[in-house]
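Audit log entry. Action: structure prediction of a protein-small molecule complex. Ligand: adenosine-5'-triphosphate. The ligand was supplied as SMILES and no pocket hint was given, so placement is left entirely to the predictor. Protonation state taken as written. Sequence taken verbatim from the request; no trimming, no tag removal. Recorded inputs:
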Amino acid sequence: MKRLIPLIAAAVAAWLLPYGLGGYAIHVVDVAIIFAVLGIGLGLAMGVAGQINLAQIAFFGVGAYAVAILTTRAGLGFWTAAALALLAAVLVGLLVGLPALRMQSHYLGIVTLGLALAFVNWITNATVAGRAEGISDIPVPPLFGVDLSSEYLFYYVELVAFALALAFALFLTHAPLGRRLRAMRDDDLAAGALGAEIPLLRMTAFVLSGLYGGIAGVLYAGLIRFVAPETFSIANMFLLLAMVIIGGRRSILGCVVGAVALSLVREALLDVSAYAQLGYGTVVVLVVVFAPTGLAGLPARLRRRRAAGARAALGPFRPYERADAGADGDLLEIDGVTMRFKGLTALDQVSLTITAGEIRGVVGPNGSGKTTLFNVVSGFYTPTSGRILFRGREVTGAAPYRLSLLGVARTFQNLRLFGDLTVRENLLVGLDRTRTRWVWRYVALPWSVLGFERALRERAGELIDRFGLRDFADAAPRALPYGIQRRIEMARAMAMAPALLLLDEPAAGLNGEEVRQLAEIVRSIRDSGVTVVVIEHNMGLVMSLCDRVTVLSGGKVIADGAPADVAVQPDVVAAYLGDSMAAPSESAVEEATR
Ligand SMILES: Nc1ncnc2c1ncn2[C@@H]1O[C@H](COP(=O)(O)OP(=O)(O)OP(=O)(O)O)[C@@H](O)[C@H]1O
């Protein structure tokens, strides 16, 4: 109920607003709402999904021009034209999203800007689009006899459309899809390894942007009933960008506040518009430098600062239940895999088999190809030659998300936690095992998404307790000590309920006690029925933990067997281990397990 009160108050205030406004003021408000819808679309692509999109103004234009052309040239009714205009904007969103499959960051910025320029060029020169003069005489949208040529009445149409658009955007960003989009923004490699279909997610971001641009375009056509190229100019794209950056692109409400505020400021500064552009530019630079998360991000920044000071401790790990009968047979077969990078052969005809239920160590000197082996197995690289079979099924070259959904989980040597997601959200990304095509439910069955989210949160709570992370559940991981981050990464990998867990140097940076706890956790994971492969430089840990050890040197397997046997093989000793492993292995074991 407490939450409903501000919502009801806002709705009543919005409903009453036109009563206090003059004719020009209501026009300004109507335009501000359109920019707010555009801002939400841009925020979804740029802020939430991290896809630079300078074509938002073109999506807006496609929506508005499609209505204009279809009503005045093809004689369609306003709402039929509006539906087709939304479809057109979504399709253009898909088209503009295509380059995002291959390129990111500033390259994507340049390409989307190019596409926006191409659109302006087209509408300025095409006869069907009315060239520089634009298209006038767009019909008044009919609505059960309500006269929508009145800007006061059109305000209510906009208000309903805006409320729905805002509610849907907020719902998306707080649901599993939004979390995945944010995870992709933070680290697309890690998100892929956790089951996110990166190409489809990028397209989804642009489709959403297109849809919101289209809605804004339809509203604009209905309100102004005239379209001309200057409305969709690059200058206005930058104004839109300024709105979203100042408001806070990562927050949907921030985008709305920025859009409305700057629309009003723009009106106030109409007489000095030449200087106003300069002013927006300066404010944007100041915001980017001093408050990169915009106005909306300020409260969170302050809160986080306070949270960092709080005292919190890692709890004990609660072991998994033992699986009754462990699986047997070969889980992973690597068959003659070679991986070449230009002139360098990182893996050379590597063959090895991982049996279900074992803990396998992979050791070797720096640069011997261990991480490359993991990258090949988890789908980051497609091997130059050779085959990989997982549970008897060929998975050579399969995308990371596919392997993740099949049951391969991994951690990273240099920790790849999603820095802007909380610890709980990091685990939730791992727990979400759905495919992106599941997104139709967001439109058709939104309540089923809410139920799914509740179930995920319950399981996240259990995982947080099991890994002793209760005190940090709602903190940002990057503020936490290294040992805790490693524990979170392990929990996130286990959230995927994998059959095979690949751990890349899990003990790096840990102290003696943390290494002991790590060994306990890995054993418990194995006892629960998960097969573990661990790359490690800490020989004591390898000797005590692993059932078998594979030694790589120069990209080749030079030994494979029980730790004690491998440690004394002369070529292993010669290649890399020397006396660090062969002689004092027992004392090292003691040290690691003490
Ligand atoms: N994407 C890449 N492009 C070019 N060379 C690469 C790439 N990835 C790895 N290599 C090269 O392949 C070789 C093996 O690297 P890899 O990271 O697999 O070794 P490693 O055994 O994991 O080493 P470390 O113990 O230092 O992590 C190195 O010479 C490395 O420079």
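Audit: result stored. Residues 297 and 303 are 10 Å apart (CA to CA). The mean pLDDT is 89.
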